[in-house]
């Protein structure tokens, strides 16, 4: 799936080194918005394990991990994932994403979110996609708003981020 400047592709093992590079270079930048991770996460094996879990998740229709690639040179600049997929009467997934700091503010995250929603609805036949964002993460709030997500409420002490239980705004978009 592609947009004017980027495309999404399911992550493969060959992408592990590029993802590791992004994770290492952006460690301090990402940390205020992520769980505290074990040092093994910042190794090639750690990223290969994460991609392997993503590949298995896609086979089981439980999760899909996409790389965000620049069309101009096929550079991997981030990741977006649909996880916790529930079928039956719910038809829901949770979305999470990150973009390399050097590519922030260029519209890539908004384009990736829009493309991922398109995949969720047209290819995966989901009805709803949710994303949660800490209220102080204003750039991510703007991304979701620009991509058509609606604010549904505040979940108090929702996720343990950077060692502390953090409130999160809940956003969602439905197929309608």
Automatic annotation (TrEMBL):
Instruction: Kindly give the InterPro entries that the UniProt entry links to this protein.
Output: Acyl_CoA_acyltransferase, GNAT_dom, N-acetyltransferase
UniProtKB keywords: Acyltransferase, Transferase
Q: Where is the signal peptide?
A: none
Give start and end of each N-acetyltransferase domain: 6-176
Q: Which PANTHER family match?
A: [RIBOSOMAL PROTEIN US5]-ALANINE N-ACETYLTRANSFERASE (PTHR43792:SF8), GNAT FAMILY, PUTATIVE (AFU_ORTHOLOGUE AFUA_3G00765)-RELATED-RELATED (PTHR43792)
Tell me which family the UniProt entry assigns to this protein. Answer: Belongs to the acetyltransferase family. RimJ subfamily.
- The protein depicted here goes by the name Ribosomal-protein-alanine acetyltransferase
Record the organism. Paenibacillus marchantiophytorum
